[in-house]
Design brief:
Rossmann fold; alpha/beta; binds 2-amino-2-deoxy-6-O-phosphono-alpha-D-glucopyranose
């Protein structure tokens, strides 16, 4: 595991964007794994800046980590819309190449296996961007999630619903259920790039990097991966 510490979150975005730019320039059909939340936003801002300076994403396919269950199509806080707004609508990626778990499906129980099959059919994820929850969750794999899990429906903890309430009118509007890539699914990506900034993440980061491998810190599963880059600001690194 490579841990990179910088004083400003914007610098972390540039480090991640360098890896993504290399992938995009050297692969014919690169597959990029996208995450939501505030942590990846400096990366997305940097990718948009590089696109405006001439970098094309026309040959890139993306797969998102997770999605709320039950939000109507087009809901502004559905992760499909967040990804579109924050990144893909500002690049030259084709709409049909932007994928996410289908949380609005009539068959949400079957949607997980279909999503894993779609990732596999695309040849797997080359580079997966990740954040980390304040309780150590990865994607929406809450503490106690199986370390070999596949994409499936999960129930959010109250803490995660409260953490994410800032995006909704009230915590009552935050869905209880989500479709999330499993920890086993995430581990199949060829390179994991995880970003964390701020003191609120320091404890979870220390447990992920230096704690024991445990389903009670789902992010600790990255210790099993042969190619992980962890990008931290000073505050997120303060308990290492
Ligand atoms: C959500 C997402 C995670 C993300 C986490 C942290 O729960 N499902 O993928 O890592 O939020 O979000 P933030 O980066 O805003 O702290």
């Amino acid at each position: 595991m490579e841990v990179v510490i910088r004083s400003a979150a914007a610098e972390l975005g540039a480090v991640a964007a360098d890896s993504i730019e290399h992938l995009v320039r050297t692969h014919d059909a690169p597959v990029l794994g996208l995450a939501t939340g505030s942590s990846p936003l400096p990366v997305y801002a940097e990718l948009v800046r590089r696109h405006r300076a001439g970098l094309t994403f026309a040959h890139v396919r993306t797969f998102s980590l997770d999605e709320y269950v039950g939000l109507p199509l087009g809901h502004p806080e559905s992760y499909r819309e967040v990804v579109r707004r924050e990144l893909t609508a500002q690049l030259d990626i084709l709409d049909e190449n932007v994928h996410g778990p289908d949380g609005a499906s009539d068959d949400v129980a079957g949607a997980g296996a279909r999503y894993d099959a779609a990732i596999e059919a695309a040849g797997g994820v080359d580079l997966q961007i990740l954040g980390i929850g304040s309780d150590g969750h990865l994607a929406f794999n809450e503490p106690g999630s199986s370390l070999v899990s596949r994409t499936r429906v999960k129930t959010l903890t109250q803490q995660t619903r409260e953490d994410n309430a800032r995006f909704f009118d009230s915590v009552d509007d935050v869905p209880h259920h989500v479709l999330t890539q499993g920890l086993g699914t995430v581990l199949e990506a060829r390179h994991l790039v995880l970003l964390a900034a701020g003191e609120a993440k320091a404890e979870a980061v220390a447990a992920m990097v230096e704690g024991p491998l445990s389903s009670f810190c789902p992010a600790s599963v990255v210790q099993l991966h042969p190619h992980v880059t962890v990008l931290l600001d000073d505050a997120a690194a303060s308990r290492l």
